[in-house]
């Protein structure tokens, strides 16, 4: 009898919040898969933009760097690939492959191949992604963020890196596909 | 730093650089909290705009508690959300076509801002958002912020994507306004400590409070219970003393010449009492203000270590050590206050409890260190002649302290010199200590005369 009383008391402690939430369905609907669809669409667009921009930069300009960013175009290419493997692995819940470490001074084609492979890895990782686990908290590096915030961060990094590519190309007298 | 952390830190480095340039450390952060509180009371016109904080990495928020609901209204600089593909027309956002992205933003940000009631995560039952130009002043108070965030943006408004913000309003149903509420921001958590959420918490029956939360940190209690506040401040005190290498070195220099723990009692008591006085005084804003003060305290702490080390080398008067330790304790108290004042915003309505708990944490940490230091020194005394041990250890400490003093002085000399008023404020503390010591010694002398000693020889 005492145990039953204890169970009822413990259950009662949970009752008010459950009731409060239960009467009103949450405004955020997961059924439309809005976030995962956005991610796949953005990946398709950005992978093309970023790869095209990397291909457009001549091989001898891969060592070019512009202040205040102080990173070479080669480093930027490698950085995009590393970011893709890290974030896509966490977001998709798929282990990233163990790859040999590349240097930013590697030949242009090798860096582009690494970047293309990373985008392909993302496509595979996101193939079956839906919005059902978007609020799950992931620990990426030292940052804790929900899966949907990781999606936003990855999309933001593509946008930022593509802007940087455009800037580097323009500083060398080239126009990127979207800038044209 | 791990590889992935480096990678995260490397991303969007421009924003980080901007923030590192402008963010002036905890003292500036406290100034902002105070300014926000002043703004809440109608004392300031535009709390954030009035400071040199990097507005591009700072989000502004209000949390208002009503009997049955909680409202969270946030202004997020658009630069923190580069992943949201708001349509653009030239250098401006196309507001008429931005609705689908607003819906996406609401869905993502509902996950990006965690709001907890008594540990249970709440999901918003109502959400709205809009783009606004950064110059919009609706976020000066809660009422205008809510009205603005709920109102659809006029498509004719010019919103430049370099100077814009996303204003979001979430409503959560709560079971009781008396619950403990916690909030966490995950927006731009990849920028590490650079992204801050300035929250003005407006409870139902208490005065409002302001606090600064780092994006990506653990959920922060907006209205902690007294025991939550006490626990977290005891922990903060212990962590602070254990990570404060300069305080530990000072403590080390204090105890090197003492052979018995009994002799240390007066010294440690004097240090504890003195640093408690300035710690409490700082919490009640009685410490001098100005950019010169933190580097002055840092330099003075290094000087205190150097003095103690040199006194050990040249022969210390251990009977009077408690007096000089008390003087230096005042300085160390200001040093402890540095971290405390930054964290007091999280004390809720338990300022005194938190202050006391922080001090308890400092003392516990100090005792723990002494428990390790004293046996280690006793062991060393068995292996090395005592005088040689004292001189060697003190000389090493003196070298370290002199280097710190020089480095900190370089920072101090770049500051604007204090005003006479500031110097007067500072001089009051040693004067107070001397006064207390003077009165105490007079009382002791008077008692000795009045009460004849019973321990006469024979």
Give an overview of the whole structure.
The complex is a heterodimer of chains A (180) and B (458). Chain A is mainly alpha-helical. Chain A has a single domain (2-179), classed as Four Helix Bundle (Hemerythrin (Met), subunit A). Helix content of chain A is 60%, strand content 4%. Chain A has 5 helices and 2 strands, in the order ααααββα. Chain A has a two-stranded antiparallel ribbon with strand order 1-2. In chain A, strand 1 and strand 2 form a beta hairpin. Residues 5-25 of chain A have low confidence and may be disordered. Chain B is built from 13 helices and 12 strands. In chain B, the strands form 3 sheets. Chain B has a 6-stranded mixed sheet, sandwiched between helices. Chain B has 458 residues and is of the alpha+beta class. Helices cover 54% and strands 14% of the residues of chain B. Chain B has helices at residues 3-10, 13-22, 25-40, 99-112, 142-150, 226-243, 245-255, 261-283, 293-314, 321-343, 351-383, 386-413, 420-450, and strands at 58-65, 69-77, 88-89, 92-93, 113-117, 120-121, 126-133, 164-173, 181-185, 196-202, 209-214, 220-221. The chains are: A mainly alpha (180), B alpha+beta (458). The interface between A and B is large, with 47 and 47 residues.
């Amino acid at each position: 009898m005492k145990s039953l009383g204890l169970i009822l008391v413990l259950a009662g402690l949970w009752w008010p919040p459950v009731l409060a939430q239960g009467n009103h369905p949450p405004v955020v609907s997961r059924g439309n898969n809005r976030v995962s669809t956005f991610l796949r669409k953005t990946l398709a667009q950005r992978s093309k933009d970023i790869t095209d921009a990397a291909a457009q930069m001549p091989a001898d300009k891969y060592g070019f760097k512009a202040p205040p960013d102080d990173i070479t175009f080669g480093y930027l290419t490698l950085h995009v690939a590393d970011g893709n493997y890290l974030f896509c692995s966490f977001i998709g819940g798929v282990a990233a492959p163990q790859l040999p470490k590349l240097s930013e001074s590697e030949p242009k084609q090798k860096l582009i191949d690494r970047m293309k492979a990373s985008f392909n890895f993302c496509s595979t990782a996101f193939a079956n992604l839906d919005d059902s686990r978007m609020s799950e908290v992931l620990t990426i590096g030292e940052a804790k963020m929900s899966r949907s915030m990781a999606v936003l961060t990855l999309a933001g990094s593509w946008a930022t890196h593509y802007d940087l590519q455009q800037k580097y190309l323009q500083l060398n007298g080239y126009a990127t596909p979207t800038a044209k | 730093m791990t590889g992935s952390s480096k990678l995260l830190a490397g991303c969007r480095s421009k924003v980080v650089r901007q923030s590192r340039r402008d963010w002036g450390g905890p003292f500036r952060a406290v100034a902002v909290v105070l300014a926000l509180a002043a703004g809440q009371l109608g004392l300031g016109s535009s709390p954030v705009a009035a400071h040199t904080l990097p507005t591009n990495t700072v989000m502004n928020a209000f949390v208002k508690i009503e009997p049955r609901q909680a409202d969270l209204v946030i202004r997020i600089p658009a630069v923190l959300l580069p992943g949201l593909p708001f349509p653009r027309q030239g250098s401006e956002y196309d507001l008429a076509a931005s609705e689908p992205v607003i819906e996406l933003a609401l869905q993502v940000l509902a996950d990006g801002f965690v709001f907890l009631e008594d540990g249970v995560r709440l999901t918003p039952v109502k959400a709205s958002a809009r783009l606004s130009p950064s110059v919009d002043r609706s976020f000066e108070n809660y009422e205008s912020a809510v009205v603005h965030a709920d109102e659809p943006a006029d498509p004719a408004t010019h919103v430049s994507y370099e100077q814009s913000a996303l204003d979001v309003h979430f409503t959560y149903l709560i079971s009781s306004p008396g619950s403990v509420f916690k909030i966490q921001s995950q927006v731009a958590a990849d920028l590490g400590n650079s992204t801050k959420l300035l929250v003005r918490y407006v409870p139902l029956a208490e005065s409002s409070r302001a606090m600064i939360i780092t994006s990506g940190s653990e959920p922060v209690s907006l209205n902690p219970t007294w025991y939550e506040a006490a626990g977290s401040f005891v922990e903060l005190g212990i962590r602070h003393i254990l990570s404060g290498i300069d305080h530990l070195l000072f403590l080390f220099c204090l105890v090197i010449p003492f052979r018995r723990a009994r002799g240390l009692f007066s010294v440690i008591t004097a240090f504890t009492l003195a640093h408690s006085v300035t710690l409490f005084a700082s919490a009640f804003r009685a410490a001098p203000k100005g950019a010169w003060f933190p580097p002055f305290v840092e330099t003075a702490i290094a000087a205190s270590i150097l003095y103690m080390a040199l006194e050990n080398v040249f022969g210390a008067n251990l009977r009077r050590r408690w007096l000089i330790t008390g003087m230096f304790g005042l300085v160390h108290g200001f040093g402890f206050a540095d971290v405390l004042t930054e964290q007091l915003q999280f004390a809720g309505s338990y300022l005194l409890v938190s202050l006391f708990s922080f001090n308890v944490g400092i003392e516990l940490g100090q005792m723990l260190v002494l428990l390790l230091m004293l046996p280690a020194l006793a062991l060393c005394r068995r292996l090395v002649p005592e005088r040689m041990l004292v001189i060697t250890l003190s000389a090493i400490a003196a070298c370290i302290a002199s280097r710190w003093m020089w480095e900190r002085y370089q920072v101090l000399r770049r500051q604007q010199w204090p005003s006479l008023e500031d110097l007067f404020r500072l001089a009051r503390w040693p004067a107070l200590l001397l006064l207390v010591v003077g009165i105490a010694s007079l009382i002791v002398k008077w008692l000795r005369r009045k009460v004849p000693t019973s321990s006469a020889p024979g």
